[in-house]
Protein: dTDP-4-amino-4,6-dideoxygalactose transaminase
Amino acid sequence: MRKLQMVDLKSQYEKIKDTVNASIQEVLDTNTYINGPQVQQFQKSLEDYLGVKHVIPCANGTDALQIAMMGLGLQPGDEVITADFTFAATVEVIALLQLTPVLVDVEMGNMNISIEAIKKAITPKTKAIVPVHLFGRAANMDAIMDIANEHNLYVIEDNAQAIGADFTGRDGVKRKVGTIGHVGATSFFPSKNLGCYGDGGAIFTNDDALAHTLRGIVNHGMYVRYHHDVVGVNSRLDSIQAAVLNAKLPLLDSYNEARQNAARKYSKGFEGHKNIIAPTICDACDCHVFHQYTLRIIDANRDALMEHLLAKGIPCAIYYPIPLHSQKAYLDPRYKEEDFPITNQLVKEVISLPMHTELDDEQIRFIVDSVLEFFN
Structure:
C-alpha cells in the first residue's frame, strides 16, 4: 500500500507534470511574472467555469476576503456576522478592517452557519453576512439571501473550501457557490480542491461597479500607473501560480468527483455504526465537494481515536479544536457559552480523515478498518 498522506499532492502532480511544467516554462521563457498572459487566461477560464461575470485574481484567500470587504465600502464599527466554527482568516479580516465581528453558532447537520442564529444576531449596525461553505459543503444560500434582502445586507461568500460545489436554489437553478452572494472569495492554497503550488486567491462578483473597484484595490488602488484612485493593497496572483492553475482547472470537476467517490466509500464503511456520524452524501447534486471528510465521534474518546490512527501511520486532523469565540485574539464579553452549543459540541467530536484525489480502495479500506478496530 502506498504511504498515506492527508493530501497527496506529489501523486497528483505526477499525472499532470508535463502540462504543469510546460505551462510554467512558458512563464519563464516570456519573463511575464506579474499580470502576464497566464493570469489573464486563468481569469477568463475561471469566469467561464463559474458562470460569473468577473473574477479578480489576488495573492491569497485571506486577501480575497479582505479586499471584498474593502470593495463594499464597509466602515469601522459596522457589524459583520459569520460562523464561529471555521478557520480564523474569516474573522481575522473583519478585525483587521476595524469592523465588528459577530460570531454565531452553526447547524449540527451541515456544520455551516445557523440561519436562526443569523436572524437573532442582526442589529441596526449589521452590514454584512459571511457564510463559510465549510469542508466543501454549500451553506443554505436561499435562506441567507432572503435575510440579506430583507435587511439590506451584503453577502460575502467564503468559498475557500468549496470551489466547484453547486447550490440548487428553490427555483431549481444550480449556481456555483461563491457566485450567489454580492461577492465571493476563494483560496488556491496547495491543499485546496483547486490548489496552486504556493499562495493564490480570487474574488468573484456579477456587479460591474464592484468589480472595477476590486481591480483597483488589488493593485495599489491604480487603474492607470501612478494614479491611485482608491486606497489599495498589493495582492496579485503571480503568473507561475496562474500557470499551475491553468493546468489544473480543466480537471477540477474530475478532482471533485474523485473526492466524492472516496467519501462514498468511507461512509459505506461506517454505515450504521453507533459511535460514528459520517457526512451526508447527496447523489442527486454536487453540493458537497469534500475538501475535508469529517466524522463526528459520539460517546467515545475522539482524541484516543486520533492517537490510534496516528500510531498506525494514518494522518488525521481536528478542524477546528478551539472555537473562534474562545480564541484569545477574538474574546468579547458579548459572547456567552450558551450561544454556541453546537460549535462547542463539534470541537469535541470532529475528526478529519485523509481526503484527496489520489486515494485508492486499498488505502480507504485500511483507514476504515483501522477506525472500526478502535471501537472493537
Remarks:
- The first helix runs from residue 9 to 30.
